[in-house]
Design goal:
By secondary structure, the chain is mainly α. It is built from 14 helices and no strands. The radius of gyration is 18 Å and the shape is globular.
């Protein structure tokens, strides 16, 4: 029950964005918020997260296996997408969004609720792995609708998160100290980024109508995110790792979280049906709330 209540602040800020758009329909420009988040606040969030915990071997394997699980699932989805979708745009949304989970805004606080503050280093570094997947492979699928293969790959290099992540890893690896005043600024920017992402999602949800939800796309994405990915993850964690129950449970939990709001950012940036993407996130988040209890029972099984 505590875990369920821990996600309520997340949905509060989503609702706040929804209400704000309803009240100030023409005054709020969604793309302006997305650009501020993508090019200013998220780079701060990445530097903040990558410099919070020293890099050591103990934390390396969990994000590596997270990426392995995601990439194996992606190979399955590529095969499925050729059969299920006739629209290349829907196929791009499916491949670009289905495996990008909300490992930061939701995964970190949920980890604290389930496992305590000791989980933060693990949830943070898994979130970093998710960010790298998001800003490389996921961005490619969204960008290919607007660019050629060469152009799509080149567009990845324009995303500031990649360069800020490399900069943060450099600072962390060489243990370059960050002054107290800069750390305060990073804290402010990171928490602003987390909040504004949820606000953006709420703003886009205002324009989502139940009758216009692309159910075929949304349900296939939710199946991939909430059923296929966790099942493949559990199989790989149990069969091919020697993680202790604590780390294994955290990794499985991060595979179960709903779709990330960042998917909306990319769909807006590359003109890839942003309202349809917002709909898929809404459906995914609703399904997550409905089956959260069963997820917690599965995680508790691994803790034992």
């Amino acid at each position: 029950m505590e875990a369920i209540f821990s996600v309520l602040p997340v949905y509060f800020f989503i609702l706040l964005g929804f209400v704000a758009k309803k009240k100030f329909t023409t005054q709020i420009d969604e793309k302006t918020l997305v650009l501020l988040s993508l090019y200013f606040f998220q780079p701060i969030l990445i530097v903040w997260g990558l410099t919070k915990t020293p890099i050591n071997y103990e934390f390396i394997m969990s994000p590596i296996f997270y990426l392995i699980i995601v990439l194996i699932t992606l190979s399955v989805l590529i095969f499925i997408s050729k059969i299920v979708f006739t629209s290349r745009t829907d196929e791009s949304i499916y491949l670009g969004s289905a495996l990008v989970g909300n490992t930061g805004n939701l995964g970190i606080p949920l980890g604290i609720a389930l496992f305590g503050v000791e989980s933060v280093p693990y949830t943070s570094i898994i979130n970093i792995a998710n960010i790298f997947f998001m800003y490389t492979i996921s961005v490619y699928f969204f960008a290919r609708e607007q660019f050629s293969l060469k152009g799509a790959l080149f567009s990845i290099l324009k995303i500031p998160a990649i360069w800020f992540a490399l900069f943060a890893l450099f600072l962390n690896y060489y243990q370059i100290p960050i002054s107290e005043h800069i750390q305060v600024a990073l804290d402010m920017g990171a928490y602003t980024s987390l909040t504004i992402q949820l606000f953006i999602f709420g703003v886009y949800l205002y324009s989502v109508k139940i009758k216009t939800i692309p159910w075929k796309l949304s349900l296939h994405v939710s199946f991939a995110k909430h059923i296929l990915l966790p099942l493949i993850g559990i199989f790989i964690v149990v069969s091919f790792t020697n993680f202790n129950s604590f780390v294994a449970s955290i990794l499985i939990m991060e595979l179960m979280v709903p779709l990330a709001v960042n998917n909306v950012n990319f769909s807006v940036l590359y003109n890839c049906k942003p309202f349809e993407v917002a709909s898929t996130i809404l459906v995914s988040s609703t399904i997550f709330v409905a089956i959260l209890y069963f997820y917690i029972e599965i995680i508790n099984y691994f803790i034992k």
